[in-house]
UniProtKB/TrEMBL annotation:
<comment type="similarity">
    <text>Belongs to the fabD family.</text>
</comment>
<keyword id="KW-0012">Acyltransferase</keyword>
<dbReference type="GO" id="GO:0005829">
    <property type="term" value="C:cytosol"/>
</dbReference>
<dbReference type="InterPro" id="IPR001227">
    <property type="entry name" value="Ac_transferase_dom_sf"/>
</dbReference>
<dbReference type="InterPro" id="IPR016035">
    <property type="entry name" value="Acyl_Trfase/lysoPLipase"/>
</dbReference>
<feature type="active site">
    <location>
        <position position="197"/>
    </location>
</feature>
<dbReference type="InterPro" id="IPR050858">
    <property type="entry name" value="Mal-CoA-ACP_Trans/PKS_FabD"/>
</dbReference>
<protein>
    <recommendedName>
        <fullName>Malonyl CoA-acyl carrier protein transacylase</fullName>
        <ecNumber>2.3.1.39</ecNumber>
    </recommendedName>
</protein>
<dbReference type="GO" id="GO:0004314">
    <property type="term" value="F:[acyl-carrier-protein] S-malonyltransferase activity"/>
</dbReference>
<feature type="domain" description="Malonyl-CoA:ACP transacylase (MAT)">
    <location>
        <begin position="5"/>
        <end position="295"/>
    </location>
</feature>
<dbReference type="Pfam" id="PF00698">
    <property type="entry name" value="Acyl_transf_1"/>
</dbReference>
<dbReference type="GO" id="GO:0006633">
    <property type="term" value="P:fatty acid biosynthetic process"/>
</dbReference>
<dbReference type="InterPro" id="IPR014043">
    <property type="entry name" value="Acyl_transferase_dom"/>
</dbReference>
<feature type="active site">
    <location>
        <position position="89"/>
    </location>
</feature>
<dbReference type="InterPro" id="IPR004410">
    <property type="entry name" value="Malonyl_CoA-ACP_transAc_FabD"/>
</dbReference>
<dbReference type="InterPro" id="IPR024925">
    <property type="entry name" value="Malonyl_CoA-ACP_transAc"/>
</dbReference>
<dbReference type="InterPro" id="IPR016036">
    <property type="entry name" value="Malonyl_transacylase_ACP-bd"/>
</dbReference>
Amino acid sequence: MRVFMFPGQGSQYVGMGKAAYESSAEAKRVFEIAEKITGLPIRKLCFEGPLEELTRTLNLQPALTAVNLAIYEALQEKNFFPDIVCGHSLGEYSALYAAGIVSLEDVFRLVLKRGELMEREAERNPGEMYAVIGLSREKLEELLLKAQTKGTVTLANHNTPVQIVITGEKEAASYAAFLAKEAGARVVKLKVSGAYHSPLMAQAARDFKAFLREIPFNPPQRIFFSNVSAKREDDPKKIKELMGEQIESPVRWVEEIENIFAAGGREFVEVGPKTVLTGLVKKILPLQEVSLRNIENPAEI
């Protein structure tokens, strides 16, 4: 079965989405709707930048979603469809649309509000995030227990068996990063302003859940997997609850991809800029016979 994976924050660059926009009427429509709903200059941000403005959480979440879905709609024009859809963190909102769970207009309402709330919480509760490479989840969790004596720090993204992002308050997160280095890991500080997918986002999650009540969710028309449960989800009410929790919950990407493979996923297609997710899947399923590709320019299909 063919799996469409939609990337999240970290895959952006100035110029993203331009190839899809120039080659597809449906891609143009996505950008137009994104701008109409959000009031943001999405095309200018994506195609011209500047990068500093593009990477602001408030701008980036709708902009990257527009690029993902412009490429997706251009692929639909070419009758290139998925059987299963999923997304990494922000990318899960693109998957909601691709699964038929929410409308295109509502996707942009959701990611605009999500970006606003996450940017607000990052200003109120500054935090840090680090990618830790080379330690098992079990070993890293041991180190986090020690670092939690300094404050809030937790797992954010379980990206591969040995590439895990940690998130939390500055002192606690930096101490956890120090402990991970001492244990032999390679540690990279991420260029983010907030402790996303952590308890520091609790107020944003509460406010987002209230906003979600206004948005209709429909039963999925395609198989949809969740970051929070790492499982296939079919009940729109449950999916809405999980999306409300996602802001402050870890992204269980390793388990999610393993479960998608167990469900029959064999052709993994990254629909969006760069190749972050195909790289992760290669490390999660190294011994399995799967095909991996990224599609950024739908004209190549």
